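R.M. (postdoc): so does anyone remember the format we settled on? I'll just put the C-alpha cells first.
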C-alpha cells in the first residue's frame, strides 16, 4: 500500500452492529464518522476505536455521505455503512493494491447480503458489486434521498473479495426498514417527475415476487430467502403506490 486511506461512515443508533464494522478498520489511516445525533452508545463506541466523530442533523443519505467525504483528509477513501463488515480477504486485497501504478480511479467491492442472520449465497444480493473505494479527487456523491450514488470520473476496477452487509436481525425491523426506504423512494421518483399507471401499481407485487424469488434464485436461500423476496416485492409495491398517490393528489 503506497497511499493512505480514509474510511468514512454515517451513523444513527448503530450500537448493535457498529463495533463489528470498526473492528475490521484498525488498519485504516483515518476513520471519519458523521452521526445524526444518536441516542444510544454509537458515538462512544466509535470514539473507542479512534474514529473522528462529527454530529450533523440528517437531511438525506446523499448529503450526509458527501458531508462525511468532505471531512476526510486522504485522497483514497472507502465509504461504508455502519452495518457493513469487511472480510479479512478484502482487507488484504485492498492493502496489497498499488494505487499509484494501477490505472483505476475507483473499485467495485462485492457485497453479500446477511438477512435475519442468514448469509445469502444465492441470488442477486450475493457478491453484488458496489462502488465504494475511490479517489475522491475524481469522485463524489449524487445527493439522493435514498440509495446515494457515487460518481467517479475515470476507469473503474473490481475487487474479488467480499464484504458482508448485515441488514436486519429481526422481522419487525425488516418490515419497518422496507417501508421507510419505499416511501422515500416514492418521494424521490415524484421529485424527478416520474409517473406510474394504476395498472403497474396493481401488478407490481406479484410480478416482483416472481422475479426476486424464482428468477433471482432466492428460493435457494431457504426461509430467509422467501421472507426477503416477500419484503422486497412489498417494498417495490409501496414505492410505486406512493408515487401514484403523490401524482394523484399533487402533494409532497
Amino acid at each position: 500500500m503506497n497511499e493512505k486511506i480514509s474510511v468514512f461512515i454515517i451513523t444513527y443508533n448503530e450500537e448493535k452492529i457498529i463495533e463489528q464494522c470498526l473492528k475490521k478498520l484498525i488498519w485504516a489511516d483515518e476513520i471519519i464518522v458523521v452521526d445524526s445525533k444518536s441516542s444510544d452508545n454509537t458515538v462512544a463506541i466509535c470514539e473507542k476505536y479512534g474514529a473522528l466523530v462529527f454530529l450533523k442533523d440528517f437531511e438525506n443519505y446523499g448529503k450526509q455521505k458527501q458531508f462525511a467525504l468532505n471531512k476526510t483528509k486522504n485522497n483514497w477513501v472507502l465509504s461504508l455503512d455502519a452495518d457493513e463488515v469487511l472480510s479479512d480477504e478484502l482487507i488484504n486485497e485492498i492493502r496489497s493494491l498499488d494505487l499509484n501504478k494501477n490505472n483505476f480511479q475507483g473499485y467495485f467491492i462485492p457485497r453479500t447480503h446477511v438477512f435475519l442472520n442468514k448469509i445469502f449465497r444465492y441470488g442477486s444480493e450475493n457478491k453484488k458489486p458496489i462502488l465504494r473505494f475511490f479517489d475522491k479527487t475524481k469522485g463524489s456523491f449524487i445527493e439522493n434521498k435514498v440509495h446515494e450514488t457515487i460518481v467517479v470520473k475515470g476507469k473503474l476496477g473490481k475487487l474479488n473479495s467480499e464484504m458482508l452487509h448485515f441488514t436486519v436481525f429481526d422481522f419487525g425491523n425488516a418490515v419497518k426498514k422496507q417501508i421507510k426506504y419505499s416511501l422515500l423512494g416514492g418521494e424521490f421518483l415524484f421529485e424527478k417527475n416520474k409517473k406510474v399507471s394504476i395498472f403497474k401499481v396493481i401488478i407490481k407485487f406479484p410480478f416482483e415476487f416472481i422475479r426476486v424469488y424464482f428468477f433471482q434464485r432466492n428460493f435457494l436461500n431457504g426461509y430467509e430467502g422467501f421472507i426477503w423476496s416477500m419484503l422486497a416485492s412489498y417494498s417495490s409495491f409501496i414505492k410505486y403506490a406512493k408515487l401514484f398517490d403523490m401524482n394523484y393528489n399533487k402533494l409532497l
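R.M.: ...and that's the designed sequence above, right after the C-alpha cells. Also worth knowing: The chain has two domains: 5-167, 170-249. The helical segments are 18-23, 42-48, 61-71, 88-95, 171-191, 198-215, 222-249.
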